[in-house]
Write a structure and sequence with these properties.
4-stranded antiparallel sheet; 1071 residues; single chain; zinc-finger; zinc; elongated; alpha+beta
Amino acid sequence: MELRQCQLLRSMATHYLKEVRGQAEACLLTTGYSPEVQDTVERMAKIPLPLLAKYQLINLSELMRQNCTSGDRKAELSALHRAMSILQKYGCNLANPKRPKYWRTVKHNNPIFRSTVDAIKGGRAALHLYGYTIQRPDGLSFPDDVTDPDLEKVAAVTVEVMAFCAELELFIKETHEHPEFLERIISGPQQEVPELARQDLPPPAPAPAPRPAQRPRTAPTSATPAAPTDPQRMSCTVCGDNPSIRCLPCGSLFCENCDEIFHHHPERTDHIREKLQPDNCKICGTSPVSVQCPTCARRLCLPCDRLYHSHPDRRDHRRIQTGLATPPRALRIPEPRVALEIPCKFSAPSGPEVSPQPVSIAEWRCKTCTVINTGSSVLCSVCERPRLAHPQPVDEAPTPPALPVPGTPENQWRCQQCTFINAARDAACEMCTLPRSGDANPQPPAPVPPVAPVTPVAPVTPVAPVAPVAPWQNSMRKEGLKLIQHIRDGEQKGVSPEEVYAALCVSRGSDVSPCDWLDSELPHLLDEICAMAASVQPQGELQDPADQGRDVHLSRAEAKQSWVAAGGDKEKAVWILLRNRHAKVRELQELGFADAAVCEEALWQSGGELEDALTLLQCALLEPIHQRVWTEQPPAVIDLQNPDKQLLCRRLLALHDLSSWGRSELALSLLLEAEGRYTLEDVLKVVRVGPLQDRDFIRRMLAIECRICTESFPRVKMEPMISCECSMCHDCFKQNFTIIIKDKHIRDMVCPMCEEPDINDSERLDMYFAFLDTQLRDILEADVYELFHRKLTEHTLMKDPNFRWCTHCSSGFFYDDNELKATCPHCNDSFCYKCRKPWEPQHTGISCEKFQLWKKENDPEYQNQGLAGYLRDKSITCPSCKFQYELSKGGCMHFTCDRCRYQFCSGCNNPFYKTTCPDAKCLIKNALHSHHPRDCLFYIRDWPAERLQGLLRMNNVEFNTEPPHGAVAGECGVIVQRADQAVDTPCGVEAGEGQAGLCRIHYNEYLVSLINDHSADPASLFDNDELLVACRRYHIDLERAEAEDDQAYHARLLEKLMQDVPLGDKVPRKN
């Protein structure tokens, strides 16, 4: 039961792992690297599964086991963590859509790579999985035929590296939730996986067979087993093919086809399967295993086997090829040859003849040791026998000594391998370095001693003596290596091998390197060669009589080519230089350039390059054509008086980019009809875009009237307005907006014909200014456009809720403090930002209402002003920008703010509409109007004072009727602005009796302000006609019920009006 629960938990964890892995790979392929990828891999690292079950592409268990061998675990884990972090960055760079410039290579000389990834075992194997599979002399790289990395594989490997890096960090910090998974790996392979997890892992590989005491030299037959293997591991359970998938619940191995068929059954669809790790070489870790050595228990690929078993102590190991289509054959590298009297013996494989492995044309198999060599090599890379040499017979008897060759002196011997005649004192062949196989000149046979009994002696391993090498051969080798080093240094500095050789020939015996000599001495030498060549007058065939006495200009490039060709010989370089120059001059003359001086100049400018000199000469010939082609010609004139209309159509079609012959004819006919009213450019612009069949439409497009100057212009010369369908000519458009920007407010920049858009609609106005900006950029002058931008910026800043207008100097500034006292930064005067009254010390610590009450009771000046001061306090405030005007509300109720051009009613603060009213039921529509509430001064200011006083008495509101003490008797003292004088002066109108020293207009304004402050509804005093008008204004149903008398009808309408239509919400009222 517990086992079943454990399997269920493991199945759930595996499914969750697959989901999280897919999310991480998809996110990595999309973004390259992001915090979401890191969060996903951290969740993947915390899944409670062993490493072999969690990571499928990288054998991280083996990686940890190889790099955690010493006692300092913390340092080893830290180094492994750093290496995985660098591998993570490599993967993220490859998966990123914007890969680095040099993503194709990883350099070994990189200090970060060398100290992290290359410092751990198995680090390069992860790079192979990324795609760095080509080994270069200085690092790893992608194959040349690969243009882009395999992003899906890179993402899968990178996600595993990132998850393991996160899991390793948790383990180092001792915060891992399941540290036992990693502890078992580090402590030993036998403790790596718990008993339950072992059921899901492949069975261990069989232990290598012990090395036999004696091994026969013949190759094994086909019946000999290649290596002890587990058949369940090495074959599919169903078909016997190579397995690639392991089923955990079934405990069996399957190939991909059998797995798909077997687990298609409904009862086996939920089985957990995992891919098997590939059996790779134990040295490089990337190539598949091709050879198995039972002696040293290693499974290697062919290149690694060839290198590993070339050691003298491992040459006698017999290996078995694995994974081949043909029966396995034993590989054996023969013992190293030594210069002894006992010759080296190579034996061909005995036993049944096996068909050799197919070898490509570029390779060949040695007939002695069966090692595959490259096609360019003449000798075998292992046994060094020639390519066509036959295998020597297997014979333990000593090879007979080489017989003397007829005609060969006794102090010489001939090599049996390459037939080279060597000196008698040489123990090895001077040509092929093979040891001497026997005595070429045998001495007379000595008498045979009596045979003694044979005593067994322990075998002694022969020691190979060092073959003597001739001193001159050693010297040649050193010089060759030195020359190769100089050539390599020159290649790094961009110097060709020929230049290096020539420099060595000149600077022989000097300690200066050839590259340094070329930098310091070669320019002077080239100048000397040029001077010598210029001073030499060649004779005979090298110079024509006509060229004698003419100076020769030679370039350094030509001198350098000649010097390199001469191998550093200065005199020979001069001769080659002159010969090449005259040959090039003659070749140019044969091409038609007879002037030798001009040819010499062209060759000198081109550095001796014949093709470049020919280009220079041809450019001189083509210069008149270039001048004629690129010189701006006057535009072709279309002469309408020309009787050949076909000619005019062809010119229009060819010169003015018309799309068809029909449009060319249409343009010509319009030009003929216009009789000079239209220009050719205007007609062509309209014809290119207009419909070909509708000539009336094209004519209308050519004659559009400007509503400002009343002149006609083509459509292309009209500037359309953005907010409406109006348009004006270019000059009127520019002049109109220039005047508005310089002399008016920015809100006046609306259409001059229809005054669109509505300036009270702030959202629509902002969008209008955004599009108008792009239209004015190319039309207005630079200074005017800059002024427009400055005004637009100020208009935008005024919308900020912290923007305040100063009541003293009318400047604006930002004030975001909670204190009532605001100080203007321009005039340094203070005022209350809430009630906008000049600041007084008595306002400190009290509200605006209490301060106003105190001032009314204690300020003598305020008391002397009486109701005039009260009306001044009830001055006009713009509801848009909050700017305050110390004016009375009498006169015209349509008020326009000077600061923001907002149009509103001074009595109820409702906006005025010029064009489009937002109320769909409005009867006025496009006329200038505003929707006033019934208690607005606009409606009740004409009531008699007694009626207004009666409304106040009904609502128990007190009001004044007597003038204040000290006021001018009989005159109204309210401050008003005279329209003719543009100054603020007292009203001066005669004050009536019982009107508190005010005129009738201002006394009614005072009474209305009291009505608004106390929210007294004037509808209670409406008569029948006033009630019907108010109901029609607010769209109240006037239908009368049957048998309803006038009093009941009036009461019902009044109740409905007062309930359905509230008082104005924007009317200034007392808080």
